Amino acid sequence: MKSAPLVGTNASPASLSPASPSSASPTTRVRVGNSTIGGREIFIAAGPCAIESTEQMEAIASTLGPAPIQALRGGIYKPRTSPYDFQGIGGEGFEILRQVRQHHGLPVVTEVMAVSQIEALSEEVDMLQVGSRNMQNFDLLKALGQANRPVLLKRGLAATLEEFVMAAEYIASHGNPNIVLCERGIRSFDNYTRNVLDLGGVVALKTLTHLPVIVDPSHAAGRRELVPSLARAAIAAGADGLILECHPRPDESISDAQQSLSLEATTDLIESLRPLAEAVDRSIALPIFQPKRAPQQAPECTSERTPERALLVA
User: Fold this and answer.
1) What domain range includes position 124?
2) Residue 21 lies in a domain
3) Nearest of 161, 178, 183, 188 to residue 126 by alpha carbon
4) Whole-prediction pTM value?
5) Could you tell me if residue 178 is inside a domain?
6) 150: helix, coil or strand?
7) How far apart are CA 294 and CA 274, in angstroms?
8) Is residue 83 domain-resident?
9) Dihedrals phi, psi of 73, to nearest 5 degrees
């Protein structure tokens, strides 16, 4: 395997970020808003494949924030196999991201498809995702190396581990050490599942690199009934977190409906991870959900109260 001096496990201390691995902490910790990936706590991001409306995102944030999740996911730009499929709501999504992020205090992860999108997205989100199709878009990787946001790098659908690690090295070599790897399944001859989740690759990546590794069981399975078991298996295999697809009404989702969990199923999945996390010396983070509410005013006295009662209430 080619040398990866910046993201490999033998990276020199001088080349790493301040939160780089030490003998006591072999995984670099990457800050995403007010959350951390790579520590003892399992990181969970959840949301729709594609953002559709403010109401959709508000429902997800208000339901899953207390579950808890540590970040919202959702795309406003969507690379699709067919040019005639829904490509995302584009610029309309900026205001939705802004409102939900400010209201709920949850970090936001969204996909960036082009160099020209980086600056605008960086102002509205906390983490930029490189999708599977762009894992070897080297111009994009170089530009993200100069961005001021952490990068979630998804494995290409037919990429080797070496190609995956070297894609991360492109980002790091251009100045950005805040990278999280995401295993999302690789293509196989069997079409029963959308992809094959490479948990052996997750274990291998933890020995090949000091970067945090999370898993996307939704894209790996392509079938919602398989997602919970794959998610639990990923945590058991040592993944630092999960990124899940969910929707208030999964069957009505514009994109990837068949692999989207309901909000209730997502909450149940997160709860089921607690004993498993403890078994591998990890934990589920406390909620960071802090919606901003208007201050409540003291109730006014009504004419039905007697003067004496009104004074007591006041």
Assistant:
1) 27-313
2) no
3) 178
4) 0.87
5) yes
6) coil
7) 33
8) yes
9) -115, 155
Question: CA 32 to CA 17: how far, in whole Å?
Answer: 14
CB contact at 8 A, 246 and 214: no
Please give the radius of gyration of the chain, using alpha carbons only, rounded to the nearest integer.
21
Q: Look at residue 212 and give its three-state secondary structure.
A: coil
Find residue 37's DSSP bridge partners: 30
- Give the model confidence (pLDDT) of 94-109 as tens digits: 999 999 999 999 999 9
Q: Which amino acid is at 31?
A: R
CA distances from 24 to 28, 84, 178, 278, 281 (A): 11, 51, 19, 19, 14
- Write out the H or E segment, with its range, that includes residue 154: strand 151-154
Give the bridge partners for 153, in sequence order: 130, 181
Q: Does 255 fall in a domain?
A: yes
Q: How far apart are CA 225 and CA 260, in angstroms?
A: 9
Give residue-wise pLDDT tens across range 284-296: 988 875 555 555 5
Count of structural domains, the chain: 1
CATH number at residue 52: 3.20.20.70
Six-digit token string for 45: 């991001």
